Amino acid sequence: MEIVWQTPANPPERQDYIFHKGRRLVRPYYFEFISHVRPSPPSLSQSLPLSPSLLLSSLLISTSDDPQVKNRWAGKTVVDFFAQEFKGRPYDYYVSAVQCGRIRVDGETVPVSYILRPSQKISHFLHRHEPPVMASDVTVLVEEPDVVTVCKPASVPVHPCGQYRKNTVVGILQAEHGLAPLFPVHRLDRLVSGLLILARNATKADLFRQQIEGGMLQKQYIAKVVGTFPEKELLVDISIYYNHREGRSMVEAGDSCRDTPTKGKTASTKFTRISSNGTHSIVLCEPVTGRTHQIRVHLQYTGHPIANDMLYLSEYVDNRTDVGMSADRAAGKSLIPETNNMYVDDCEETCSRNFSIDPMCTQCPNLAPTGYEEHEEGLWLHCIRYSGPGWKYECPYPGWAFLS
């Protein structure tokens, strides 16, 4: 079987995508992962994800003088390194990968007994399966010589990161609209939808960056929240602390009477109710600062969390099925539900018609990596407007924003 290896230089193409049951999937492809990891004490495994679909392909052994770091690599073979640090794949896979040259050291094939040394590069070549996203189009709103604005669908990452490369806004725009290069001016979380501004050259991107750093931009979002939100404008000015281990933020009010310093960063968001039907409210959200999950955690603090945000909703809703499916499955990294067997069987049939199965791949014959469900709902948080000195870009409201 002839293998054509792809690198970041290979652009996504329209035929790379498959639409199936409301989801956009990517045909699996052979890929030479290129990334560099410098481990830090006390444990590399604490700082790197171990999911098989997050396996890094190219690692640089650190030359740190820290003895804890040096001891981690002393006498370790290339197979033992992968098997111990990346437990998502079986030991036998790494043995086979080294033997057939899919794992190489400094570009060379080595024996399974090869012992790693500092400053060596380890390349991992594999059959890549990207996670699916919702099948909504990435709609181009404005196309100017220096700027493109789009309506980003929920569930689609902005740019290549982690497990995603082609199933991203940047990748889809390149494949379906021939728009490249693109420089995202700001970011939206994967599950958030709405206005996304992309510069078409580095000069324009740098101008936007200067305006952002100078505090010259105004941002507006809308959210669908639980209950009847207060009619009067509400300003939440309270620090936020992001817990990386749990993947969520929390408010940190602080206490002027205690000596212990707070960990949180200052955060401020203005909220204005747009409409309400007694069960839900549509709220205009204007973040003054830009902290991780700022709008979500500030709405939780008000007692009106986003109505399908399970990450911040649990304290307010006893029966989660009453508010719909979780929009943040990815937040529970260790809580990914088991794959629906009926969906997998159907997907296997679809996949067999669309790509060649790789005998060494631990994900084949599925289109998507194992552990992903058929359905995923976008968060009810949508960016509607960005404005700055002499310019303003807007995005239409989503369907959920119109209460009955």
From TrEMBL:
Recorded catalytic activity of this chain's protein: a uridine in RNA = a pseudouridine in RNA
Entry EC number(s): 5.4.99.-
Domain Pseudouridine synthase RsuA/RluA-like: start-end pairs: 146-300
Pfam families: PseudoU_synth_2
MF-aspect GO terms: pseudouridine synthase activity; RNA binding
PROSITE patterns with a match to the protein in the record: PSI_RLU
Keywords: Isomerase, RNA-binding
Active site residues according to the UniProt entry: D189
InterPro entries: PsdUridine_synth_cat_dom_sf, PsdUridine_synth_RluA-like_CS, PsdUridine_synth_RluC/D, PsdUridine_synth_RsuA/RluA, RluA_PseudoU_synthase
Protein purpose: Responsible for synthesis of pseudouridine from uracil.
Annotated family: Belongs to the pseudouridine synthase RluA family.
Listed SUPFAM superfamilies: Pseudouridine synthase
Superkingdom: Eukaryota
Species of origin: Eucalyptus globulus (Tasmanian blue gum)
Protein name listed in UniProt: Pseudouridine synthase
